Amino acid sequence: MASYKVLLMVTSHGNLGFTKEMTGVDLVQLAICYAALDAYDVDVTACSVKGDMPPIDPLYDLEAEVNDGQLSVDRGALMKLLASSKRIVQIDCAEYDAVIVCGGYGALWDLTCDPDSVTLLDDFYSADKYICAFGHASGALIHVTREDDTSILAGRRVTGYSNGEELAGNRADAIPFFVEDELVRCEALYSKAENNQPHVEIDDRLITGQNTASVRCTIDALLVALKSLSIQKACSSP
């Protein structure tokens, strides 16, 4: 597969609402995502609102290694990637083929409404580049708009962490909103599988996954789409 440059957007937020509980990056989801990209030698850059090392959600940390079929990545490799995170305001979308908004409860507080985060996602959409998100990170798309200020989600097939999955956990009372509810409010054509089952929606340049079980197939869908785009460009070149 050709080499691509992909941006991984992660949360910088570490407090779970008004509780004393900590949150942050879902390292399990990030590990599956990174392993899939690394297997195809994709050039990966991490970014976050504050830059540098983001907080790690202790509920979704790694003891040592995540195995996903033939793919594995150790915690040290992920820490090195995250420690090198650039600030979102420093990112130029022209340098990347796609952006992946990574899951984690923290994303509900900063990536959904931080002006720099929203502006960067606006830039990727305006440049007709792939935007990929999974789990809670689908919530980062709710304030991204078209030129006429309508939501990019309106009329689009999308998925993200479901109300059922949220209610089955122990954090529903602490979060600012339910992802499913907000996607529906934005007039997205939301769909979901049963709790913790893989489900991916692909609508043009927008690729979303429901949960942790969906991360690998979400990234696979992005890689297939990027390869197809490269073939189309090669065929259209004089």
From TrEMBL:
Signal peptide: none
Classification via InterPro entries: Class_I_gatase-like, DJ-1/PfpI, Prot/Nucl_acid_deglycase
Keyword match Protein transport: no
Cellular component per GO, a single term: cytoplasm
Keyword Cell membrane among UniProt keywords: no
Molecular functions per Gene Ontology: glyoxalase III activity
Keywords: Glutamine amidotransferase, Lyase, Stress response
Residue span, DJ-1/PfpI domain: 26-190
Gene Ontology BP term (one): methylglyoxal catabolic process to D-lactate via S-lactoyl-glutathione
Similarity comment: Belongs to the peptidase C56 family. HSP31-like subfamily.
Family annotation (PANTHER family): GLUTATHIONE-INDEPENDENT GLYOXALASE HSP31-RELATED (PTHR48094:SF11), PROTEIN/NUCLEIC ACID DEGLYCASE DJ-1-RELATED (PTHR48094)
Record protein name field: Type 1 glutamine amidotransferase domain-containing protein
